Amino acid sequence: MAMTENFKCNKCTCQLPYFLPCEVSLHNTTKDCWVSYRGSVYDLTELCNLRKGHQGIELIIAYAGKDISHWSYDNAKEHVAFGESINSTVNNRPSWLDDKYMRGNLTKNARPCRIINVLTGTEAVILICEEDTVARIQERFLGFNAHGTSYTWKFEGLPIDTNCTLTENGIVDERERFLEAGLPDDTYIPAILCYYNDDLTEQ
Q1: How many other CB atoms are there within 10 angstroms of residue 160's CB atom?
Q2: Are 79 and 122 found together in one domain?
Q3: Helix ranges (DSSP H) in 21-102
Q4: pLDDT per residue rounded down to tens, the chain (203 residues)
Q5: Parent domain of 92
Q6: Which of 85, 106, 127 is at the close of a domain?
Q7: CATH code (residue 157)
Q8: CB-based contact 48:30 (threshold 8 Å)
Q9: Of 73, 106, 139, which closes a domain?
Q10: Is there a single domain that holds both residue 98 and residue 119?
C-alpha cells in the first residue's frame, strides 16, 4: 500500500484512515476545523477552541477544510506569521502539527469506483481513495446499501481480496491513459459486481 509523505510520528500512518479532499473540505468551521498538510490530515478544532482569540488562529480558521502544505517551515520557523502561542514547537514541529491532532492521511489519488448490484440491477459510482482496501470501500458503500457487507464482490468473475486495494486486486486506474489518447477520463470505469449472500444481515 502506498504511504503518504509526512513527518515522523508516533502513530503508524498505515493504520490511519485515508481521506478524500472533499471529505476534509466538509470540516470547515470553527467548531469543526480540519486541514491537510503534506499528505496528513489534522483536526485542529481543539486547538482553535483552546487558542480562541489568539493571534494566528484566524488564519487557521480561514483555511479550515483546505490544504495548507504551502505553510512549509524550516528549522521550526514558520513561513506564515503566527502568534507565539501558535508558533510554539513540539518535538521540533509547530504545535498545530502535534501528533494528537492527526486523524489520517490524504489520498494521493481520488478515483471513481463503479459498483453493480447483480440482484437488483442497480449501480453506483462512488469516489474512493486509491489506498482504500476493498473492505474500506464496502464501508463507504453502506451509504447506498445497508446490507453491503452481505455481498460477495467480484471482478471479471473472480472474487476480490477485501484486504487489498483495487490496484492490488488488478483493478487499475486507467484515466491517465484515456486522457493521453484524447478520450474522456471516464470512458471506462471498471465494474465490481456484487452477489447477494442471503445471510439475513440486520440493518
Answers
A1: 22
A2: no
A3: 21-24, 45-50, 57-62, 84-87
A4: 333 333 333 444 457 999 999 999 999 999 999 999 999 999 999 999 998 878 778 889 999 999 999 986 654 444 454 544 455 555 567 878 899 999 999 999 999 999 999 999 999 999 999 999 999 999 999 999 888 888 999 999 999 999 999 999 999 999 999 999 999 999 999 999 999 987 655 54
A5: 13-106
A6: 106
A7: 3.10.20.90
A8: yes
A9: 106
A10: no
In the chain, count H helices and then E strands: 6, 14
Whether residue 126 is found in the same domain as residue 53: no
Residue pair 90/76 in contact by the 8 Å Cβ criterion: no
| DSSP codes joined into one string, 93-127 | EEGGG-GGGEEEEE-S-EEEEEEEETTT--EEEEE
CA distance 19 to 21: 6
The predicted model scores a pTM of 0.81
**Domain-located, residue 8:** no
Closest residue by Cα to residue 24 from 15, 34, 12: 34
Provide the grid cell at 13.
500512518
Taking the CA atoms of residue 172, residue 178, residue 183 and residue 186 in that order, the dihedral angle to the nearest 10 degrees is 20
Count of domains observed in the chain: 2
Q: Which residues, in sequence order, are CB contacts of 108 under 8 Å at separation 6+?
A: 2, 4, 39, 130, 131
